[in-house]
Specification:
Number of strands: 4
Radius of gyration: 12 Å
Structural class: alpha/beta
Shape: globular
Strand order of the largest sheet: 1-2-3-4
Largest sheet: 4 strands, mixed
Helix content: 25-40%
Distance between the termini: 30 Å
Number of helices: 3
Length: 99
């Protein structure tokens, strides 16, 4: 069974570990709602992702939409090449704040 974890590193910094896919994104979205309320600036480290698919990419877009709605600044760091390539071929690379 696929597993993923969103871990708070404090001061609006988070780390995602595990598989970012169809089996895990719903739970991550639910758990992130309360976690993201603590800060106006969010940084999400994606270097710990072992697998990502289109559902994972959709989650990154949804997190960005939620942050914008709530007036927060969000950026992603450490994005794996697999997700970066998927964002590129899906023509959403320019939409996501990728570093």
């Amino acid at each position: 069974m696929a597993a993923a974890e969103l871990k708070s590193l404090g001061a609006g910094r988070f780390q995602v570990r595990g598989e970012l896919g169809f089996e895990t994104v719903k739970a991550l979205l639910v758990s992130s709602q309360a976690s993201f309320q603590e800060s106006s600036q969010l940084e999400i480290d994606l270097a710990g992702i072992t697998h990502g698919d289109s559902a994972g990419l959709a989650l990154l877009i949804e997190w960005l939409r939620i942050a914008e709605r709530d007036g927060k600044v969000l950026r992603y760091v450490g994005i794996p090449e697999q997700l970066r390539s998927l964002a590129r071929i899906s023509d959403v690379e320019d939409v996501l704040p990728l570093n």
